[in-house]
Write a structure and sequence with these properties.
Layout lengths: L4 E4 L3 H12 L4 E4 L4 H6 L5 E2 L1 H9 L4 H6 L1 E3 L2 E5 L2 E5 L1 H4 L5 E3 L2 H14 L3 E3 L3 E6 L7 E6 L2 E6 L2 E4 L17 E16 L9 E5 L2 E9 L2 E8 L10 H11 L2 H4 L7 E15 L2 E2 L2 E3 L5 E2 L7 H22 L3 H28 L8 H15 L1 H12 L4
Parallel strand pairs: 1-2, 1-12, 2-8, 5-14, 12-19
Antiparallel strand pairs: 3-7, 4-7, 5-6, 9-10, 10-11, 13-16, 13-17, 14-15, 15-16, 17-20, 18-19
The structure holds adenosine-5-diphosphoribose and P-hydroxybenzoic acid (PHB).
Length: 390
């Protein structure tokens, strides 16, 4: 089998790239380790920057997003009983974010790939890249017990944090940077009306909580927990009680609770791998970087990688112009590190750090008080939350 661009991973990064390239006449094959149902069963964040929305429109997959996505012009931060609304729209000259679940984004991308006859091979096992330093790299994999080979011009690693592609970069070339936080998020999806029409990020003596939503009757909530916590150890009642004691009382009073449809624990980590290119291999999305979910930058950051990379590949195939490919890693990393900084900062501001008792807690409180009193500080938050330019 051969193609022009071989893509490892059929998450949002891989699917978006294959769609954008296909529309410009560039052939792709996506190799995904899991089944489609498994990929669509993963529940992740749901806040889309305008840059991401624009990319979805350019990829001709924005119809449902534009119909069902909710535009949010503000976001709320609570500290104990104090509440601050960040006027995203007013502070950024009219920019907003859209609330639309990543699962729905992935579903729309699959539908678009199907409609164009895009090739996505699911349950591709043992995907292995070869000859990445040559002009003729190839991938081997096993499908239904049969060994297969895919020849291509480029290999794109969109295979997430646990994928193979980053691991084939020699240790003397690859540099990684990591911070693991001493807590996780316990998330619950429930068929209940959201407690607030805009998101509320809350910090309390009990830790962190987030009130988010997926639709008028579908809510997504999180509370801070231990990173190694088993979600089954939390009954629904335990979860709701913790949430209520972490958000301001007047919000808790309005909370409608119900059975959890889904309950899961996500550890929090910051991670960056440099460089994002090795020979004919290019990394994009979670394969190269992870942000803690505070700030909802994960998917949006994957999208800016895909923007730079798709433009670079289109210029290479169209005009033989190599500059975009040469500069991809450096350009993408510039934006990635800014989003890493913001996500780290939001995490730092809003969580209870076990080692922080005393001085650290007072500094956090002072940071929040400063945010309450300073339009400049709010503007910094707003500008980052709606997304820095590509
Ligand atoms: N071979 C083939 N596919 C693989 C392999 C492998 N060895 N390893 C992983 N994959 C697949 C996974 O099954 C997954 O479907 O790669 C895909 C990677 O998808 P994501 O983890 O969703 O990563 P990405 O597409 O970069 O999307 C970034 O997802 O994790 C969130 O916060 C993140 O929202 C961001 C977005
Ligand atoms: C979510 O809705 O799942 C969500 C929203 C904002 C975040 C993280 C997760 O920062």
């Amino acid at each position: 089998m051969d193609t022009q661009v071989g893509i490892i991973g059929g998450g949002p990064s891989g699917l978006l790239l294959s769609q954008l390239l296909h529309l410009r006449g560039i052939q792709t094959v996506v190799l995904e380790r899991r089944s489609r149902d498994y990929v669509l069963g993963r529940i992740r964040a749901g806040v889309l920057e305008q840059g991401f929305q624009a990319l979805m429109r350019r990829a001709e997959v924005a119809q449902r997003m534009d119909r069902d996505g909710q535009v949010h012009g503000g976001v709320n931060i609570a500290y104990q009983e104090d509440r601050l609304r960040i006027d995203l729209e007013g502070l950024t000259g009219g920019k907003t974010v859209m609330v639309y679940g990543q699962t729905e984004v992935t579903r729309d991308l699959y539908a678009a790939r199907d409609a164009l006859g895009g090739i996505v091979i699911h349950e591709a096992e043992d995907v292995t890249p070869h000859d990445l330093e040559s002009d003729q790299p190839y991938l081997t994999f096993t499908k239904d017990g049969v060994a297969e080979r895919l020849d291509c011009d480029f290999v794109i690693g969109c295979d997430g944090y646990h994928g193979v592609s980053r691991q084939v970069i020699p240790a003397e070339v690859l540099k990684t940077f990591e911070r693991v936080y001493p807590f996780g998020w316990l998330g619950v999806l429930s068929q209940t009306p959201p407690v607030n029409e805009e998101l509320i990020y809350a910090r309390h003596d009990t830790g962190f909580a987030l009130c988010s939503l997926r639709g008028p009757e579908l809510s997504r909530y999180y509370v801070q927990c231990r990173a190694d916590e088993n979600p089954d150890d939390w009954s629904d009642a335990d979860f709701w009680q913790r949430l209520k004691s972490t958000i301001p009382a007047e919000v808790a009073a309005r909370l409608v609770t119900g059975p959890a449809i889904e309950k899961s624990v996500a550890p929090l980590r910051s991670f960056v791998a440099e460089p994002m290119r090795w020979g004919r291999l290019f990394l994009a999305g979670d394969a190269a970087h992870i942000v803690p979910p505070t700030g909802a930058k994960g998917l949006n950051l994957a999208a800016s990688d895909i923007h730079y990379l798709s433009e670079a590949l289109i210029a290479w195939y169209g005009e033989g112009d190599e500059r975009g490919l040469e500069t991809y890693s450096a350009r993408a990393l510039k934006r990635i590190w800014k989003a890493e900084r913001f996500s780290w900062w939001m995490t730092q501001l809003l969580h209870k750090f076990p080692e922080n008792e005393g001085f650290g807690d007072r500094i956090q409180r002072a940071e929040f008080d400063y945010l309450m009193s300073s339009r400049a500080a709010q503007t910094v938050l707003a500008e980052n939350y709606v997304g820095l330019p590509y």
